[in-house]
Write a structure and sequence with these properties.
A hairpin with a 2-residue loop joins strand 6 and strand 7. The protein is of the alpha+beta class and 445 residues long.
Length: 445
């Protein structure tokens, strides 16, 4: 007879538990400049023991210096430049491109119902500027006739930039050609009839179908290439968020030096209250809690600065060739390699690199630009993704346009240079750089 026993057994197993303070420290380490500024502003609003100061924290009455020099350096987060003189400071933000289009439409009509329809349609555009729902559905939502909604949509397509509110690529390109006075041109005919053949560069077939010469088709294709398939992308006042550097590399007396930028960060210090808590246990507990929280915050900021500086200095040492020769000088580097050199955990390096930007004499780069995933210990210089991408651009730029290099041929060319890259990897790089395949790069005629 089988006996079944039920019991409980205790086992000791090591497990890492992150306290709220540890989570805050990790969040501060991985936060880029703009995100960190928002976090500190929130803490200023809720923490009664924290106050904002200008310049270095002075030992005047009402201020409280921290003992550690690193913490004092963080407490005043005014780095090498004042906010107004920061060289990367962006211009005043431009109005939203949808608001600009609505403003243009208001100049054309005073019909309030038409303006309301236009405002609704502009709100239904996707990031490229295309209408994201059918006109019939928009008419149903507005309770207006479909023809009226369609008239407003077409009017929006004639604004600047032309092609806004199009329902397809054909409509978008046709509207742009019409805005140039080329609505009856050969380019417009090709756009309306066969964009697929144009994309495949079948100029001969297009010429026979449209009863024109191959040279005329090539000229029309060149005209079409000047159009914008995404009319809202970078055209109608849209503005990418500025890259605010966390680190700055400058050449001083022939030597490269690293500065930690604190532009946009508030200067922080602990507040010293003149009134004592006395014998009030609740008041004492209140002060102890917020003073400990403030010291932990400033200590986390100091640790962030130390870690960022160490990571940046090591990157500067490993990637010295990049600052001298450009992309070709990039060396193989992974988070694991850098963690071993600095005696840190790989996850710490990943958090320190996340979203961080470094300003260099060669431009602004994200720190992850200097790393490559999946490299082996014997990886040679030049196999960093940025270097491989640059070499692929050069090979494609120098190819014969009548016999462009296929992905396999590009992979063989890289292997001859010592870079063992698979064909599918070449295809991945090419797609990431938005370079068409050899079949679409071939020039006919």
């Amino acid at each position: 007879m089988l006996a079944i026993r039920v019991g409980a057994q205790l086992r000791a197993r090591p497990q890492l538990v992150l306290t709220p303070r540890m989570r805050q420290a990790l969040r501060i380490l991985e936060a880029p400049q703009l995100e960190l500024a928002a976090l500190l502003r929130q803490e200023l609003q809720r923490n009664p023991m924290l106050e904002e100061c200008e310049g270095e924290p002075a030992g005047e009455e009402g201020g409280d210096r921290l003992g550690a020099p690193e913490a004092e350096a963080v407490a005043s987060s005014r780095g090498g430049w004042e906010d107004g003189a920061a060289p990367w400071r962006s211009a005043r933000a431009q109005p939203d491109w949808r608001e600009d289009l609505l403003r243009q439409y208001r100049l054309q009509t005073r019909d309030r119902e038409a303006i309301a329809v236009a405002e609704f349609l502009l709100g239904c555009l996707d990031g490229r500027g295309y209408l994201a729902l059918p006109v019939a559905e928009a008419a149903r939502c507005l309770g207006r006739p479909r023809g009226e909604v369609e008239r407003v949509r077409r009017a929006l397509g004639r604004l600047d930039p032309p092609g806004i509110a199009a329902r397809s690529l054909t409509e978008c390109l046709a509207a742009q050609l019409a805005a140039r006075g080329a609505a009856r041109s050969l380019a417009a005919r090709i756009v309306r009839t066969d964009l697929t053949a144009l994309g495949r560069r079948r100029y001969g077939a297009l010429a026979r179908r449209l009863h024109v010469s191959v040279e005329e088709v090539e000229q029309a294709a060149a005209q079409i290439r000047t159009l914008w398939p995404d009319p809202a992308a970078g055209r109608a006042g849209s503005q990418a968020p500025p890259l605010v550097p966390d680190l700055v590399v400058e050449v001083v007396d022939g030597r490269r030096e690293i500065w930690l930028s604190d532009a946009g960060l508030p200067g922080l210090r602990m507040r010293r209250w003149a009134a004592a808590a006395g014998n009030d246990a609740d008041a004492r507990g209140f002060l102890i809690h917020w003073r400990a929280r403030t010291r932990w915050l400033l200590g986390s900021l100091a640790a962030r600065r130390r870690t960022l500086r160490r990571v940046a200095e090591e990157i500067l040492a490993v990637q010295a060739g990049f600052f001298e020769r450009g992309v070709a000088g990039l060396q193989p580097l992974t988070y694991r390699h850098l963690a071993a050199r600095l005696g840190l955990h790989e996850s710490t390096i990943a958090r320190a690199v996340r979203g961080k930007v470094i300003q260099t004499p060669r431009g602004a780069f994200r720190l992850r630009y200097f790393f490559a995933k999946g490299l082996t210990e014997d990886a040679r210089p030049g196999c960093v993704p940025a270097a491989v991408a640059q070499r692929l651009r050069e090979l494609i730029a120098d190819e014969d346009q009548r016999a462009p290099l296929a992905d396999a041929a590009l992979a063989r060319a890289l292997r001859r240079e010592g870079l063992r890259i698979a064909r599918r990897t070449v295809a991945k790089y090419r797609a990431r750089m938005r370079i068409p395949s050899a079949a679409y790069r071939r020039r006919i005629g």
